[in-house]
Structure formats: structure tokens, C-alpha cells
Specification:
Layout: H1 4-39, H2 58-65, H3 69-100, H4 106-118, H5 125-135, H6 141-166
Helix pairs in contact: 3-6, 4-6
Length: 171
């Protein structure tokens, strides 16, 4: 049977963890709340009030009336879908190969993939732009999807490789 002091310590620890969780949730959700609140303010209230005096949806109406808004959203959805699809398919296959098959330089390849993950994408921006301009594919959706795939693939492979390694071989 647990001592009363142990139960009290567990309750205090549980209360502290709940307080930390609630403060963290507020800390992360407040900017989203402020973003939504600001989007519902009229233009004259943007800088001068925290809470809008009257809510308006005119900002959303103006954005939806922009001539290229729907095509831009559709392009974003198409690019994100195909980039995600390619990252998942290639990432699963590559991480399974790196975790399950025994071959020379396997750990070197895994380390190289990790080093690609550490490389900030902004470093490659100008060279990729020059290559795309030279190939004439700057405005092509498939090229943007391919670039997103290359930027996200190292993280996916590294994450899935470690996950697959943690699965028991008997399964």
C-alpha cells in the first residue's frame, strides 16, 4: 500500500504536469486564435484594438474574389498531394531497404541522408532556381513537386528507417 506522502507527491507531480500542458496549449494556440480574430476585424480596427468592436467577413470575401485565388489554391493542393505521395512511396521503399537489407556502405548512405536533412533548403535555392531556369521548368507543377520531394525525403527516410529498425524481426 502506498504511503500518503507518496500519493501526495504523485498528485503534486500530476498537477504540475497538467499546468505545464495547459500553459503549453495556450502558448501554441494563442497565435492561431489571434490570427483568426484579426481576420475578422475591419481594416480600421487592425492596429488599435485587441478585440474587434464588430466582426466582419469582408476580408474573406475580398480574398475569395481575387481573380487567381481559386487556381492558386488548386495548384497548391495538386503540388502538395503529389509531393506527399512521392515522399511517402519513395521514403517507405528507401527506409525499408536501408533498415532490412545488409549491403556494403549501408550506414554511410544512412549518414549521407541524415546530412542532407541537416542541410537547410534555403542554401540550395539559388542553384535550383538556375537549374530550373536553364531547363525552362520554372512554372511547372511537376518540378515544384519534385523539389518539395527532394527537400522532404531525407527526413522521411531517416524517420521511417528508425521506425522500421525498431520493429522486431519476428513480426
Amino acid at each position: 500500500m502506498a504511503k500518503p506522502s507518496m500519493i501526495k507527491q504523485k498528485n503534486i507531480a500530476l498537477t504540475i504536469s497538467y499546468i505545464i500542458a495547459i500553459v503549453s496549449i495556450i502558448f501554441f494556440l494563442y497565435p492561431i486564435f489571434q490570427f483568426l480574430l484579426t481576420s475578422l476585424k475591419p481594416t480600421k480596427d487592425l492596429l488599435w484594438s485587441i478585440w474587434p468592436k464588430n466582426f466582419t467577413q469582408i476580408n474573406y470575401e475580398e480574398v475569395l474574389k481575387l481573380p487567381n485565388f481559386r487556381s492558386a489554391i488548386l495548384n497548391s493542393i495538386i503540388i502538395a498531394f503529389f509531393a506527399t505521395l512521392m515522399v511517402v512511396i519513395i521514403g517507405i521503399l528507401a527506409s525499408y531497404a536501408l533498415s532490412s537489407f545488409k549491403f556494403k556502405k549501408r550506414e554511410n548512405i544512412a549518414f549521407f541522408i541524415l546530412s542532407l536533412y541537416i542541410l537547410p533548403p534555403i542554401v540550395t535555392l539559388i542553384p535550383v532556381w538556375h537549374i530550373a531556369r536553364g531547363l525552362g521548368v520554372l512554372d511547372q507543377k511537376w518540378f515544384v513537386s519534385l523539389i518539395y520531394t527532394f527537400f522532404n525525403l531525407p527526413f522521411t527516410v531517416w524517420l521511417l528507417r528508425n521506425f522500421i529498425i525498431s520493429i522486431p524481426k519476428e513480426i
